[in-house]
TrEMBL record:
<comment type="pathway">
    <text>Lipid metabolism; fatty acid biosynthesis.</text>
</comment>
<feature type="active site">
    <location>
        <position position="347"/>
    </location>
</feature>
<dbReference type="GO" id="GO:0016020">
    <property type="term" value="C:membrane"/>
</dbReference>
<keyword id="KW-0012">Acyltransferase</keyword>
<dbReference type="InterPro" id="IPR012392">
    <property type="entry name" value="3-ktacl-CoA_syn"/>
</dbReference>
<feature type="active site">
    <location>
        <position position="314"/>
    </location>
</feature>
<feature type="active site">
    <location>
        <position position="223"/>
    </location>
</feature>
<dbReference type="Pfam" id="PF08392">
    <property type="entry name" value="FAE1_CUT1_RppA"/>
</dbReference>
<dbReference type="GO" id="GO:0009922">
    <property type="term" value="F:fatty acid elongase activity"/>
</dbReference>
<keyword id="KW-0808">Transferase</keyword>
<protein>
    <recommendedName>
        <fullName>3-ketoacyl-CoA synthase</fullName>
        <ecNumber>2.3.1.-</ecNumber>
    </recommendedName>
</protein>
<feature type="active site">
    <location>
        <position position="318"/>
    </location>
</feature>
<feature type="domain" description="FAE">
    <location>
        <begin position="5"/>
        <end position="288"/>
    </location>
</feature>
<dbReference type="InterPro" id="IPR013601">
    <property type="entry name" value="FAE1_typ3_polyketide_synth"/>
</dbReference>
<feature type="active site">
    <location>
        <position position="144"/>
    </location>
</feature>
<dbReference type="InterPro" id="IPR016039">
    <property type="entry name" value="Thiolase-like"/>
</dbReference>
<feature type="active site">
    <location>
        <position position="351"/>
    </location>
</feature>
Length: 412
């Protein structure tokens, strides 16, 4: 454990695409109207999901969507989307930390929905002219857990190698994976996922502990791939017309909750004080005994909840969607203040997949707001003073007043 605590995050750079890639409600409607095989039921479904998504007017999309080419992306579109992020965020991170690309000894790149030859990691190495003995890992297909896996790879390397710099680069490929069909379970990712990314510089150099932004505390990950419900809840596939997309099943929330509970069971003893663990054990035991004695009564009283605030000061939950955040808030007994960072990030940037998920860290120093970070020009506006309600309902709520699929038409 002492070895693990020696590694830290020196700095990180979240990717903020340029303003010409913003996807507001008007542009969203233009994209939807270009999908000619949508009918009234699909329009009502999209309206409901977008309104309830928790996403605002300033999220970002790939240039293929902005240019109206989302139905016919090329391999060059996918490469350009990745390089735009790589060339921006990695360069800013290295410049701010004054670290040369030749000093990076470990590189981990994760992009779930894109696998190229040469690999994305190789493209980064070539562009920044990194050393020839660099340890390289290129991950794909890992979804929102990819950042955890990437950090775990670095942690294991740090255990057996001292005085290293490691660069973790994580994003998602949107350009070739936008769904243009009418399967509702495959339309849903279009309503949630947006462009983003993050480059993180880690080190286990003791001499740099004073420069650390975060120090590692612990990481846990459970794998439910052996369970069919979990394995099939999120799959890249083709619909009946052969259109490629990501299929999200109704089992996804259940599978995510099960994994979340298992992770909490593992992480609680590592981060919570003994007093809270003992309190929870006693309350649980008393409740169990009470239920046994009054088995005829339904419910058996209020279910005991462990208080994570006794060991955690800040909660940066994965902003996978409004329902995800609300579910975690309820499960952990958190306040609106506790989940505000996640809710605001979802509103401003959308679900950016793996680049928004990490593990448990101890804050060593505060973020310098003068740095070129993704929130610099808008943090003062959050939380918004006005309602965070999505304008889709105000602009397009008339769709719910339509009832005949045969006569329904979207105005030009």
């Amino acid at each position: 454990m002492q070895e693990d605590q020696e590694y830290c995050i020196l700095d990180y750079q979240c990717y903020k695409p340029t303003d010409d890639r913003m996807l507001d409600s008007e542009l969203c409607l233009a994209v939807i109207k270009r999908t000619k095989n949508l009918g009234l039921l699909e329009y009502k479904f999209i309206l409901k999901k977008v309104v309830n998504s928790g996403i605002g007017e300033q999220t970002y999309a790939p240039r293929t969507i902005i240019a109206g080419r989302e139905q016919n992306p090329t391999i060059l579109d996918a490469i350009s989307e990745m390089e735009e992020f790589f060339h921006d965020s990695i360069a800013k991170l290295l410049a701010r930390t004054a670290i040369s690309p030749l000093e990076i000894e470990v590189l981990v790149v994760n992009v779930s929905m894109l696998s190229l030859v040469p690999s994305l990691a190789a493209r980064i190495i070539n562009h920044y002219k990194m050393r020839d003995d660099i340890k390289v890992y290129n991950l794909s297909g890992m979804g929102c857990s990819a950042s955890l896996i990437s950090v775990d790879i670095v942690r294991n390397i740090f255990k057996s190698n001292k005085n290293l710099y490691a660069l973790v680069v994580t994003t998602e490929s949107m350009a070739p994976n936008w769904y243009s069909g009418n399967d509702k379970s495959m339309i849903l990712p279009n309503c949630l996922f947006r462009s983003g990314g993050c480059a993180v510089l880690l080190t286990n150099k003791r001499a740099l502990k004073h420069r650390a932004m975060f120090r590692f505390k612990c990481l846990v990950r459970t794998h439910h791939g052996a369970r069919d419900e979990s394995y099939s809840c999120c799959m890249q596939q083709q619909d009946e017309q052969g259109r490629l997309g990501v299929y999200l099943t109704k089992n996804l929330p259940k599978a995510a909750t099960r994994a979340f509970v298992d992770n909490l069971r593992e992480i609680s003893p590592r981060i919570l004080p003994i007093s809270e663990l003992l309190r929870f054990m006693v309350v649980s035991l008393v409740r169990k005994m009470s239920k046994t004695q009054t088995s005829s009564e339904a419910g058996g009283g209020t279910k005991p909840v462990i208080n994570f605030k006794t060991g955690v000061d800040h909660f940066c939950l994965h902003h996978g969607g409004k329902s995800v955040i609300d579910g975690v808030k309820l499960s952990l007994g958190l306040s609106e203040y506790d989940i505000e960072p996640s809710r605001m990030t979802l509103h401003r940037f959308g679900n950016t997949s793996a680049s928004s998920l990490c593990c448990v860290w101890e804050v060593v120093r505060d973020l310098d707001l003068s740095d070129a970070n993704a929130w610099k020009d808008c943090i003062e506006g959050y939380p918004p003073a006005v309602s965070m309600a999505n304008p889709f309902m105000e602009k397009f709520g008339w769709i719910n007043q339509e009832f005949d699929p045969d006569t329904f038409k979207i105005p030009e």
